[in-house]
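Case study: General secretion pathway protein.
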Amino acid sequence: MYLNYFGLQTEPFSIAPDPTFLYMSERHQEALAHLSYGLQGSGGFILLTGEVGTGKTTVSRALLDQLPEETRTAFILNPMLNETELLATLCDEFGIRYAKRNITNKRLTDKLSEFLLKANAEGEQCVVLIDEAQHLRPQVLEQLRLLTNLETNQNKLLRVILIGQPELQDLLRRRELRQLAQRITARYHLLPLQPSDTERYINYRLQVAGAQRALFDSAAIKRVHEASGGIPRRLNLLCDRALLAAYNDQVQTVGKAQINTAAREIGEAEATTARRFSPLAMAASIVVALCLGVALAAWQFLPAQENSSPTGQQSQDSQRVVDTANETGIRELLRAWQLPQPPTEQAICDWVAEYQLACVQTRLRFDRIVALNLPALLQLTDGSWQFVGDLQSRPADSWTGEFLALWPLPPGYQLEDASTYQKWLAQQLQRYRQSADDGLAQLAQALQQEHGLPVTTQLDALTLAWLASHNTTLGPRLAEAR
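Here is what the predicted structure looks like once written out:
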């Protein structure tokens, strides 16, 4: 209805996964790098999780587009299968012929083994992609693990990509699946878009659709990010309704008023849908939501060279267990990063690694904490935490001088191949180089002296947090919280 009015050639905000409109934010690119590396490694499983609408399908499509031509792929879009149905589906997807009558798991497994061995001999890689994998039964996951036991001295004959919602991580923490969890060589959890990515996302899709000018003003973009929470699918719904509202209002540019109209319409539609559920189903959904947790991240820091670990002597405090997740300050910090409630049995600084984040906890002057430009917690003498979320915040009189903040891990930081991280690190430290002979200690010292950080001559957690927070758009900023 509004295409001619705005000079568009096609709908810019359709929720269909059209590759023409593929926009890869920094988080999507980081996820793609992790998954691509996992396919090159020696493990059998790769894991991609995220809330509904965060772009998991976008990343998986981009990953499949990068696969070499000699890759054989199988897609399982309906995970509600038993073991026999899974094996039969894999045979169907790979084009393996088998007798439909009197099929058994052994016969299907033998067929698959024969096919995988032949494909490997011909230089082909076989990949299985399972969407909505949180619905897989534990017995089916175990059957998949047994299939990945097929290997040569150098390669796995089958790689499995599991894509699902956060509940998938809970499923993989079950004791009977611990062997499978240990075989996950790459994992990534997609968080929603940040405000800067939301603006680029909207403008990119409009440009692809044929827009010759900006159709959303800055106030509209800010409001649509708030209303959508940075979820791409919800962004599409809101922007589409907002364009229609602008057409109805006969205005040339979408403003905050049109976004509010779209948000009300979508909210009313969602409320109508919610009322269709029975009270029992709604109660069950609430119980499930309250039980969500996040999987324990088994990972280690990957320093580019000696002393570049963020866990140096100065910042050993960043490894402390923060066991006060029920306090208001902690909740506000997690909300600023759009993180769910953490599991009670796990230290927050360990848990956030699953979200490509790290903790820094140490003492620092308040003006230097503000200059770090990250939401932070100030520890008070009674052990509680005061949240600092904007530039106007001031510490309480009972502040101990200690603070805690989360910072985004640099690109490639969690990959075993540290080349991506090393390249990023070299770029960030280049401006501090005074001579060609400067080593890491000299560069770290120059950075720390320039920005008033404790001089340790090491790339400790605080120094890396400073670099990451000032050289990446990932994560919230104090300036954006006003």
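For the exam, be able to explain this: The first helix runs from residue 3 to 6.
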